[in-house]
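Researcher: Structure prediction, please.
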Amino acid sequence: MESIINFEEILDLVGTPENKLRRYRACLKEFDRLQYDDPFIKQIRLEIVHLEEQVKTLAKI
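Model: Predicted structure follows.
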């Protein structure tokens, strides 16, 4: 059976940008410890930059 909700939508449902940032950083810490890198990890790194900017913007409001 195929899912009608994608992974990104699931992540959006489970928390704030701060929570996503915390989860992504924990993932990267583990991947760095394992010395593992691939295109998906690079995508996570870019998403972290985006989330950091989003959190800064929300903090100013």
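Model: The chain has a mean pLDDT of 84.
Researcher: Thanks, that helps.
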